[in-house]
Specification:
heterodimer, A: about 475 residues, alpha+beta, Uridine Diphospho-n-acetylenolpyruvylglucosamine Reductase, domain 2, Uridine Diphospho-n-acetylenolpyruvylglucosamine Reductase, domain 3, Alpha-Beta Plaits, 5-stranded antiparallel β-sheet, 16 helices, B: about 425 residues, alpha/beta, Fumarate Reductase Iron-sulfur Protein, Chain B, domain 2, Rossmann fold, 5-stranded mixed β-sheet, 23 helices, 12 strands, about 10% strand
Chain lengths: ~475, ~425
């Protein structure tokens, strides 16, 4: 079928105003937040009902059209970049919160609900949805589940997968598949919900998502600890965990990031410090007091030059402002910002930091590192200019080496950004040829025509082992 | 259409600025237009990607890009919230100028910008005639808001509830002023602006009252021209530079510490856009000198004169304040107008989303009225929900939009400029 004939078919499903075929509209769905080349789809559609979304999936399959589902397009690994000649389906209009159940502590949502809006609605009822990816102000819950998004609270509260109780999704024929339940316990059938989490749109298309809610902590206390060496800071992190304290957030900023943030905000950060730890403990007020005092003491025992405990909301905000400023401040240094998320076991952070320093020197690059010290999920951020082809070659080599070395430390390619297109070539290094062959067989059985976000995660057929 | 290569060549100057967008997409959270349409081409990231696509020869349809580039309120909320500090407005205005240079100015805009706007005397005469006859075509709908609607089906007016042109424009009330500076005292120049002059002369009068009360001498030269924002938003650099040159000339002879305006858009245009968009080297120095002296009247009253909030009396009338984008986003001015409201003896009742665009966006309102109305309708709902007796703001364009939106909802809530409250007191 020609594009014109196809767009008529899509129009019949979603309405003419929700089918986009002009070059300028299509080009605006050609990219996401990953530093990768753009690729426009042939058609973009914006279903306004879930039923229409199911029909879109079937129409794509009937015509063997590659289909990429797009929420807010904030993906950092190219997972939302469509295939040439393919279809992009936008979930933005599927943004209803269908139910928030206070008795059974769950919510049912459509895939296009924005994470922060959902968290705010839940909070209004006195409940808590903890996953807080950096893009939560715009990211969608469908995208969060498809990527298994993390965030600052991962250490204590877990990541998106820990909150997915159930799903309904469309298979390639537009059939509705149901998995999981509204109950805490459920062992009915295969754990397909588990399979769908982090599947990056390659196995099915979400219809509704059932998410777990928890009671919010009654109190929280934030503090900032200043260290002369990265190793001392990491030892403090290990000691906090060894003392059986699990902070809600335990964030790390390296010296370059500290200096850049200070230059940006002028909030009086210690620019000579080699590392900053930003720590927040939460829970019952009495426990928070006790934990905060212990954490302060532990940091001091581990040669913290100073520990500043926030006394009120304004001081707590100032602590977190420094963390929120990390990426914006770094992003302004050079035109191109490459944000990575190689993750290592917590105890290996000092080794990884030394490696990053070595890599920055070896390839003559500027790398600022911040991230989630509590869970070993660092964000080495390469500041560069992709137009400088010589430098860009060094950036690509540096990225290769970052992954290689993180894996050698027993780490993983991606803590929270996904594999997408950017990291599929490294997948075999962390897993095995057999793993990729197994994944391919599964994908082929579920999606014989390979229409669902092709080439993501496992790469194109014939590549990656 | 001219050769696409030529356009690509012209776009190259934007490349260094375009590359700073890291496509994070955070602008989706704050764009008032995107909130309505959900279309990526309506939000800054999408538009920047389209401009980048043209610059790197990935796109072949400059008309399509231009159409989407112009679907923007230029409210600057994206820029004010951009994590990587992309100069969105600067890029968009430059891109519009490049596009207009390449595609040419549409005939209607050409007639308005070059025939009318660039000739202030003719502009004044024509609108003066219009003001006398407007009653034939329109009828009042809301006495409190002073709004009118069309008597007959009119394509230009549509279903708008608009403020009529003032019977006497400000330049007929106060033609010129050059008050002597008191011993060691302050003196400012006052830039009136088109909407104040022709629709809200009472606001300009209020500004003069406010300055007089604080012993500030005023220099108000005659033959002031438009600040140029309609022209430069339409990509017409030629008219824009002509208007700047005219304004520089009329203000050149004055002795003053600051140039004040009571229009948020005029303030941000003179202070920021003049500097970035007036490229003629012979203008640059004079532009920089005047631009750096330019302030909003409330900002001047609070930051320079030192106006302080008055003690709140029991039963003080309540007012809610709408932040004009061109003060909040472009210049970061939010506290000073609120201080002036408090100094006037009013009780401020904040509305939800006070800093969200009213949806006017200058010519956006003319070209995309339905969208403008949806965005403005939410603003009107927030004004009503605040429970305040009136709504104040610092921009006459916002006043026009708020009047239309509140009038259409039948809300009997007067719209005032902050300076009107200050001049008359609670």
């Amino acid at each position: 079928m020609t594009t014109k004939a196809l767009s008529k078919e899509f129009e019949a499903i979603v309405g003419a105003e929700n089918v986009l075929t002009q070059e300028s509209d299509l080009h605006s769905y050609a990219y996401d937040a990953a530093v990768l080349p753009s690729q426009s789809p042939a058609i973009a559609v914006r279903p306004t009902t879930r039923e229409a979304l199911g029909k879109v999936v079937k129409l794509c399959n009937d015509n063997a059209l590659p289909l990429t589902i797009r929420g807010a397009g904030t993906n950092l690994s190219g997972g939302t970049i469509p295939k040439a000649g393919g279809v992009v389906a936008l979930t933005g209009a599927l943004d209803k919160i269908l139910e928030i159940n206070e008795a059974d502590l769950y919510a049912v949502v459509e895939p296009g609900v924005v994470t922060a809006k959902f968290a705010a609605e839940v909070a209004k009822l006195g409940l808590f949805y903890p996953p807080d990816p950096g893009s939560q102000a715009v990211s969608t819950l469908g995208g969060n589940v498809a990527e298994n998004a993390g965030g600052l609270r991962g250490l204590k509260y877990g990541v998106t997968k820990d909150y997915v109780m159930g799903l309904s999704f469309f298979d390639v024929n537009g059939e509705l598949i149901k998995t999981g339940s509204r109950t805490v316990k459920c062992v009915t059938g295969y754990n397909l919900a588990g399979l769908m989490v982090a599947s990056e749109g390659t196995l099915g298309v979400f219809d509704t998502i059932t998410l777990k809610l928890v009671p919010p902590p009654k109190a929280a206390k934030a503090m900032m600890a200043v260290f002369d060496s990265v190793i001392a800071a990491c030892e403090a992190v290990a000691a906090i965990i060894a003392a059986k304290i699990v902070p809600a957030t335990l964030e790390f900023l390296d010296n370059f990031t500290i200096r850049t943030v200070e230059n940006f905000r002028h909030a009086g950060l210690p620019v000579e410090a080699e590392a900053l730890l930003l720590i927040e403990v939460d829970g019952h007020p009495a426990m928070v007091e006790e934990d905060a005092a212990k954490v302060e003491a532990i940091c001091k025992e581990h040669k913290a030059k100073s520990v500043r405990v926030a006394k009120d909301a304004a001081e707590r905000n100032a602590v977190w402002q420094a963390r929120r400023d990390a990426l914006p401040a770094l992003a302004r240094v050079r035109p191109t910002t490459v944000l990575e998320d190689a993750t290592v076991p917590r105890s290996k952070i000092p080794a990884m930091m030394a490696i990053l320093e070595e890599i920055a020197k070896k390839y003559q690059l500027t790398i600022g590192t911040f991230g989630h010290a509590g869970d070993g999920n660092l964000h080495p951020t390469i500041l560069t200019d992709k137009r400088d082809t010589h430098e860009w070659e060094r950036v690509e080599k540096a990225i290769d080496e970052i992954f290689e070395r993180a894996l050698a430390l027993g780490g993983t390619l991606s803590g929270e950004h996904g594999i997408g297109m950017a990291k599929s070539k490294y997948l075999v290094q962390e897993t095995s040829r057999g793993t990729i062959a197994f994944s391919r067989k599964m994908k082929k059985a579920i999606d014989p025509k390979n229409i669902l976000n092709p080439d993501k995660i496992i790469g194109a057929e014939g590549k990656n082992g | 259409m001219a050769d696409l290569k030529r356009l690509v060549g012209m776009m190259q100057e934007l490349d260094d600025q375009l590359v700073t967008c890291m496509r994070c997409g955070m602008c989706q959270a704050v764009c008032p237009l995107f909130a309505q349409t959900g279309r990526e081409a309506d939000v800054a990231r999408g538009k920047l990607a389209l401009l980048d696509g043209l610059t790197h020869e990935m796109l072949k349809d400059p008309l399509g890009v231009n159409e989407r580039l112009n679907r923007c309120l230029l409210c600057g909320t994206c820029e004010a919230n951009c994590p990587s500090g992309v100069k969105v407005l600067d890029i968009f205005l430059k891109a519009r100028a490049i596009m207009t240079g390449y595609l040419g100015l549409p005939p209607a805009q050409k007639a308005i910008f070059r025939g009318l706007l660039a000739n202030p005397k003719l502009f004044n005469t024509l609108l003066g005639i219009g003001a006398k006859f407007q009653g034939l075509f329109t009828k009042p709908v809301d006495d409190m808001l002073g709004s009118s609607c069309a008597r007959f089906n009119s394509p230009l007016i549509g279903d708008r509830h608009f403020k009529r042109l003032a019977a006497r424009p400000f330049h007929k009330i106060v033609a010129k002023l050059d008050e002597p500076r008191q011993q060691g005292g302050r003196k400012v120049a006052f830039f009136v602006g088109c909407v104040l002059d022709k629709v809200f002369p009472e606001v300009a009068e209020a500004a003069l009252v406010a300055l007089k009360r604080n012993g500030v001498a005023v220099f108000l030269p005659e033959n002031q021209a438009c600040c140029g924002i309609p022209a430069i938003s339409g990509g017409d650099v030629k008219t824009f530079e002509k208007l700047i040159a005219q304004n520089l000339e009329v203000f050149a002879g004055g002795d003053f510490d600051h140039l004040l305006t009571a229009c948020a858009t005029c303030t941000s245009t003179i202070r920021k856009v003049w500097k970035s968009m007036a490229r003629k080297p012979e203008l640059a120095e004079a532009v920089a000198r005047l631009a750096d002296k330019t302030m909003d009247v409330s900002q001047y009253l609070v930051d320079v004169v030192g106006v302080k909030p008055a003690a709140l009396k029991a039963g003080a009338p309540s007012v809610t304040y709408h932040d004009p984008c061109h003060l909040k986003n472009s210049l970061g001015i939010t506290a000073q107008p609120r201080t002036v409201i408090a100094a006037a003896g009013y009780a401020l009742k904040e509305m939800t989303d006070a800093g969200t665009c009213c949806g006017c966006g200058g010519s956006f309102n003319l070209k995309h009225y339905e969208l403008s109305k949806t965005i403005g309708g939410r603003k009107a709902d927030n004004v009503v929900a605040s429970g305040a007796g009136l709504v104040a703001t610092s921009c006459p364009a916002c006043m026009l939009q708020l009047t239309d939106m509140l009038s259409q909802k039948g809300a009997k809530i007067p719209v005032k400029h902050v300076l009107q409250l200050y001049a008359s007191g609670a």
